[in-house]
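Pasting as-is:
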Amino acid sequence: MDIPIGLESLFWIVLAAAIAPLIVGLLPGPKVPEVVVLLLLGILIGPEILGLATKEGPIHLLNDVGLGFLFFIAGYELNPRVLKGRVGVQAILAWTVSIALALSVVGVLYQVGYVQAFLPVAIALTSTALGTLLPILRDAGLLNTRLGRLVLANGAVGEFGPVLAISLFLGSRGAWASVVILAVFAVIAVAIDRLPRALFTHRIRTIFERGSETTSQTTLRWTVLLLVGLLLIAAEFGLDAILGAFAAGLILRQLTPAGDQALEHKLDGLAFGLFVPLFFITSGIEVDVSSIIENPGRLAVFFVLIAVVRGIPVLILFSRDLRGTELIQLGLFTATGLPIIVAVTQIGLATEHMLAENAAALVGAGVISVLVFPLTADLLGRRAARKESATERSQVSESGDVS
């Protein structure tokens, strides 16, 4: 691609990213997740409508980096403690039930000729867009609540499970070869985790501490190196880049178990200031709107399947932990999926195993899940909070009357 053409696409993408917060702030009624606006703006400036931007050439590379940052932040935000104990076991069991249900349902669709790619479609139906949900949960103040912790647990399994399945069953190598490569990758990731502990002398640590608040930005530069390095290693081993990014986030969390607020602010600025919005906008650019319009029934089928396959097992297995509105919110958040759906459909189309109309419908269903499920969960939470507040005021009024 010519540089001027690439810059033109980048301009429209950056413009869309810049005006998205303004649109969110100006819209009346309940706050719409910014992710939703980014996706819609991507569709608007994409080739299907205005034709102002494309995902070709350098934009494609920036999109991959944005996807990497999304899963890097997700891995960093994941506290391994949320997967320990009963909650972790339940989250793993819920995803296992989801994949079994997906295989059963997609198996029937495969037999009747509705789908051509059996495994990719089944894997896509079991994903949870934890990276997409993190900014939504953070903005809603739910990240450190009981509901937020359960969403994190199910989201972690709903991301890592499909990523492993993609690496094992959708790669160019056989399943056993993929297992060996995954094991080697895990050893490399562990070595990267342990190496700084062994090499960080007092003098080196001092250099990092001093440089982190100067123009050197030493800590941030090495963090980006960790991300890009594991993305490269994953690519060299034929694994999905998502796995490398997720592993990089987990490693950074292990290196800073207590957290590093200064570094986190810088990462947020770098990730959510440019790369993550760019990923969502380019995902919107890539949506095949004409195919969805021509086959609306397929989109509706996959949307319902996403809700049932991923949401229902969570509702059943976590009914002892949450009640009423919060339980429904958990099911809706967990059924929100997009990044892995996009990755799976790209693999399916590249290998010519997935029908183009099914790929478009799956991505469209993932987009709608991001549009509908978090917003519905937020509305339910607001309504429950209003009812609780009204009840408290009524009780205070009654106690005042009695006194």
